[in-house]
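Consider this:
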Amino acid sequence: MHQTFDAALEINLLHANQEGADHNRAHFDEWGITCLNIMSSPGAGKTVLIERTLAALRDRLRIAVIEGDMTTELDADRLRQYGVPVFAINTGRSCHLDSRMVAGGIHRFSEEQDPTQFDLVIVENVGNLVCPAEFEVGEHAKVALLSVTEGEDKPLKYPVMFQEADCLLVTKMDLAPYLKIDLERIEANVRQMNPHCTILPISAQTGEGLEAWFDWVGTQRPGRSPAPATEAHSSVSAS
């Protein structure tokens, strides 16, 4: 059976992107850096999660951030307040970061900093539950966020994101008592397609589950001991 033009084009695009992602990852491996790709729908809590992570771990890990948004540097400016290098990428009409865009961020990173002195690069992807999961950027692990306000059905309706995730953070747990949400159903739906995913319920508002998240981040640094968690700054006010 002959492929349609659109199917062949998609395969070629993904193949070219994968080559770029492998090249990006080779840079990170050379420098001894672990890269995490943070993905979710808009408003699930990616930026505030990164804020809490920077506040807790910046004194123990050298961290840089590659921040993706369609427009503005609003989130990048929030993260710069934590005193870490932040490289903003505006994607325009594109609904995800790809390896070429992140390569640009890596180039700026290596020009402005000595990357061999860093432990962790966090990539905050564009808010979208579909495309970011299909385009690797050179990460060593994918982290998906699902807020309790989004419902139990999202893993079934947007399967690729949850199939690809190495870790799923169920966010805004402080709101769970006010919602008809079944956390066991969320986990069961995820396990149908990804039995090995680590699932952590958290709240950036109350701090619930964040220590487990910080510990998981530590386990992603090959050959190094997990970074002990410290108390996150209490100035963050959104989950």
